[in-house]
Amino acid sequence: MSVRLPQADAGEVSAGGCGGAARMSAEERRKSERKRLPPWFRTTLPTGSAQARFNDTKSNVHEHGLHTVCEEARCPNIHDCWGRGTATFMIAGEVCTRGCRFCAVGTQKTPPPLNPNEPTELAEAVDRMGVSHAVITVVNRDDLPDGGADHYRKCLEAVHERRPDVGLELLCSDLDGNLDALDHLLLDLPLRVFAHNVECVPRLDSVVRDPRASFEQSLEILREAKRLRPDLLLKSSIMVGVGETDEEVVEAMRLLREAGVELITLGQYLQPSWKHLAVDRFPEPATFAAWDQSAREMGYKAVASGPLVRSSYRAGLLWEEAMGGEPVVTRDSTGSAISHLNPSKDLLAKSATSSATETIHPAITINEALQSPEHQTI
């Protein structure tokens, strides 16, 4: 009688046969291939009144058990934004109906029902934090007929009713292309900024985003938002480092500008985990400065471009820039955004000498802060 002998897993033995060196698992291999952060990934802490405001905001958050995207995503710009009165809140749940390859937010085909108390809870959180500009971002809710539009509206109205002095920015989903839902959402809504992120250049939609999302559908939402509410400022964001070329970034900015977008942010994609899309490249600071210049030449009213920039980076100050204020890149610059408007910054140098593990604040190093959910869409 023949006896089948135990066999080693093919993924654990090298092609050299018995006695060969063990192969790395897929997880180990992908972890080993993750690129190290380049030396220009650094930022500085705010000082003076900005630091005092950050401390007050942080105390309010922890004292009242509030939750913000800023802390939960370990954003490297948290000191900068909180110190200047801006915070970001995510509504409509903690899981998304889409599975974009860059995003760390969990995915479920049928998420839990919406929380009917969320509008009141959000308004209370914004009030207690004492911010002057609140960014409300959402998960995709393709399980709902209106994509969540009515719930988003209720949340924003509740915040405005409680704190009419707080400027509101909605970082919205594409509502699965439902223009009627967009109309319902925006009708007389008390907003400063309507934002929707295209995430990447058009060619990479199928690589980066969920199949239900596309650059063209995003443009349609932005164009329609401008048609419905010409009084609103439109904003979008592009991640780089996912396989695009420099020229494709410029072309994507041109398409967005033609759609009516007036505020734009560009930032470096960072891989949340080994399971996510790998980083393709790290454009140098001078490249981000060139994109900043191109955007301004196209007529954008406010621009933030840099490795550490995230879609809601200095959102309140970016709005002020669009309204004629000082550019965010020259306003108490921390080095996160880069521009030829501020050419003295050493981040424009092609080589830098600082360590990639320079400390942002005592508890989080730059490496820890940046290996976090990127542009959570949105």
Describe this structure in words.
It is a single chain. Helix 7 packs parallel to helix 9 (215-228) and helix 10 (246-258) runs parallel beside helix 11 (285-298). The protein starts with 25 loop residues before the first helix and ends in an 8-residue tail after the last helix. Mean pLDDT is 82; it is low at 1-17 and 350-378. It has 378 residues and is α/β, with parallel strands linked by helices. It has 13 helices and 11 strands. The longest helix is centred in the N-terminal third of the chain and has 16 residues, at 48-63. It has a 7-stranded parallel β-sheet, sandwiched between helices. It has a two-stranded parallel ribbon with strand order 2-3. The protein has helices at 26-32, 48-63, 69-72, 78-82, 118-129, 149-162, 179-186, 205-208, 215-228, 246-258, 285-298, 315-322, 366-370, and strands at 86-91, 95-96, 106-107, 133-138, 167-171, 193-195, 233-240, 263-268, 302-305, 359-361, 364-365. Strand 5, helix 7 and strand 6 (193-195) form a beta-alpha-beta unit.
- Helix and strand content put the structural class at alpha/beta
Helix content: 25-40%
Radius of gyration computed on alpha carbons = 22 Å
Number of helices: 13
